[in-house]
Specification:
By secondary structure, the protein is mostly helical. About 70% of the residues lie in helices and about 0% in strands. The protein folds into 3 domains: about 1-130; about 135-215, no CATH class; about 230-400, no CATH class. The protein has helices spanning about 5-30, 40-65, 75-80, 85-95, 105-125, 155-215, 220-225, 235-240, 250-265, 270-280, 295-310, 330-340, 350-360, 370-380, 385-400. Helix 4 crosses helix 5 and helix 9 packs antiparallel against helix 14 (about 370-380). The radius of gyration is 35 Å and the shape is elongated.
Length: about 400
């Protein structure tokens, strides 16, 4: 096994040990936090762990940038010691504490070991560019022959002068080669440092974009947070006293959704148009078999609604339920309300897990309308039963 492979395996082992330790600390913090709802603790912990991964990656990039010009392990140790305060600050951010106390030295040693390993990996890669190596991996540049001038010369003065000129020329060429090689090494290391700095900026930009996107989607939840608890809809489990989502009937689900709709309309009257469309479509969320992850339940419900209406009348509807008719404010609210309404349901429920899986594959499905109609879809009757009921109702109307 090469030195680089050994350093890489040690690095990953140390990183895994640090990650496991931080996960234990964050899990205990979230578990002991009283202000976080039980169903939200899993998401909060996942968010904390993502922050830890981001902070650790940024810290290791910064330390690699600081140590990339070091030529010995001693120089690396000195460079890391100078940045002990930076490591300490980032450690506190990883575990979301102002002071980690007695474990500060343990965290420093872990980061120190990882930084040394990544320097060793880089050093081995750079050393492989050397034209000639000794057994210790050090490049050898001074390969000029040794001349013992204490012995009596066996050559004439002209021969000696020629030999000296040749030796001087050879040493000059080797010096130039060494200078060129050193310049290439410095340039390569500088390029690596620049690439690392550019990657760090791109990572920060991406994290900032994701944070802004998350913040924009949580605006409605923040507004709801300022409303007294007594005025907000209770979580689904509390409303039906411990009943699971898959245990309640279509009628009971509809009753709870009405409570949510009334509340969001008091928060913003623009949601009334969204709710009117859902009320028209909630009984049409059935599919021919199982809905695939790529299918939008909203579009399926719209198509079913128009087909069912065509059985009753051929007259065009004045205001058909169509998500394309939403204005910009309604589309924004549709996205923002999704996170709040999702938090009212137990994340461990199979139906909620299935919807979250759909959203991970297709983020565009993360809307209030899609989620509510998906809940009705899980309670919908089969298409055969639905169509037979419609035919039955039409037959009764004809008799009347």
């Amino acid at each position: 096994m090469s030195t680089t492979e050994s350093a890489a395996s040690v690095y990953h082992r140390r990183a895994k040990r640090l990650q496991d330790h931080v996960k234990q600390i964050l899990t205990k913090q979230v578990h002991d936090e009283q202000d976080i709802a039980e169903q939200d603790k899993g998401q909060v912990l996942e968010s904390h762990l993502n922050d830890f991964d981001r902070i650790l990656a940024e810290l290791m990039r910064a330390l690699l940038h600081h140590t990339s010009t070091c030529m010995t392990v001693e120089a690396v140790s000195f460079a890391l010691e100078e940045r002990k305060e930076l490591i300490s600050q980032n450690t506190n951010n990883m575990v979301r504490m102002t002071n980690v106390g007695e474990e500060a030295e343990k965290f420093y040693n872990a980061i120190y070991g990882m930084a040394t390993c990544q320097w060793q990996i880089q050093h081995e890669a750079l050393s492989s560019l050397s034209p000639q190596k000794t057994t210790s991996g050090q490049a050898v540049y001074d390969t000029a022959p040794i001349v013992d001038f204490s012995k009596k010369s066996e050559f004439s003065d002209n021969s000696t002068n020629e030999m000296m000129r040749a030796l001087a020329k050879q040493q000059e060429q080797q010096a130039k080669q060494q200078e060129v090689h050193t310049g290439m090494m410095v340039k390569f290391m500088q390029q690596m440092a620049d690439v690392n700095a550019e990657n760090l900026e791109l990572h920060k930009s991406e994290e900032s974009r994701k944070r802004e996107q998350h913040d924009s989607k949580s605006v409605f939840s923040v507004r709801v947070g300022s409303v007294p608890t007594a005025m907000k809809p209770p979580p689904f489990k509390m409303y039906y006293q411990g009943s699971k989502l898959d245990d309640v009937t279509f009628h009971k689900l509809n009753k709870y959704i009405d409570v949510i709709m009334c509340f969001v309309e008091t928060m913003d009257t623009s949601t009334s148009g969204i709710n009117q469309m859902i009320r028209k479509l909630h009984q049409c969320a059935f599919t021919r078999g199982h809905a695939s992850d790529e299918q939008s339940i909203v579009l399926i419900a719209q198509e079913n609604y128009m087909n069912l209406r065509a059985l009753r009348t051929k007259e065009p509807e004045e205001n058909p339920p169509d998500i394309a008719n939403q204005n910009q404010k309604q589309r924004t609210l549709d996205e923002q309300m999704y996170m709040y309404v999702l938090s009212l349901f137990d994340g461990t429920n199979p139906e909620i897990k299935q919807f979250n899986s759909r959203v991970r594959m297709h983020p565009e499905l993360a809307t209030y309308t899609e989620f509510i109609l998906y809940l009705f879809h899980t309670k919908s009757r089969s298409p055969i039963v639905t169509w037979s009921k419609v035919e039955e109702m039409l037959h009764i109307k004809k008799i009347d």
